[in-house]
What does this fold into?
Amino acid sequence: MHRPLYDWFINELEIHAPQQIEFARLNIDYTVMSKRKLLELVKNGHVSGWDDPRLPTICGLRRRGYTPESIRNFAEKIGVAKRDNVIEMSLLEFCIREDLNKRAARVMGVLNPLKVTITNYPEGDVDMLEAINNPEDETMGTRHVPFSRQIYIERDDFMEDPPKKYFRLSPGAEVRLRYAYYITCNEVVRNSDGEIIELLCTYDPDSRGGQSPDGRKVKGTIHWVSAQHAISAQVRLYDRLFTTPNPEEVPKDADYTHNLNPDSLKTVTALVEPYLKDAKTSVNYQFERLGYFCVDYDSCDDKLIFNRTVTLKDSWAKQIK
It folds into this structure.
């Protein structure tokens, strides 16, 4: 205890006694905040450096896409404690979602592409559709998204034998393409190994913009990109650095590194809409229905790289769980 000794010196020296405010260190679950342990993670190659987006460092959070406003909001929500406590990572994720929801432009990207051919759409035609950049901020305006005969959708948005309350694409079912048309899946194409490689669908030309003149309701809406116009991008999918809320809970004769998450980083090649061709470093975007992403500073003119900041809440995934 340093306070009694400090007070003794103040009293014996008869000098001004300043106000003292004591506070505990902030701890967050699924990570470590000790500088010694962070240094070990860096030195031993468990992470790429101090700015690794999985680390709770300022440069790591910045590279992952966290904004100063979101971190300040997080600090205000948890307050100042005198005793050590552990704050849930989910609160920090809530703060960044809340902030980016207001400022990040919406775009469409497909992380695990599945080809869709719209058989009754004219070959060679391109339809430029108007899309809203951010419904929370009208001043961000709109953009044009190209639509063509062949598109890509998320592989997870198709299920051949769907359960009840599955409102995405399936054989014979109709779904709405975001900003585009209603489509119906008619046929599934497989390769020699039996894997689904393509869907043959038809579209309703009267449903442009996502509404039909006959007033029929379609519950499911999915995102997509035009195969002809899509841009390839590397996407780094970051997750929790450790597999358990308390990394210190380990078996005998093991240390905290025993709980490192081997899947804390996955890299995929995604397809994104052409609007992102000139995306600038550290700019945040919302990939509709997927999450928030920012442009990494490893990007260059011929190679776009995005870091996933945080996912969106997926009601269907929650239901499946």
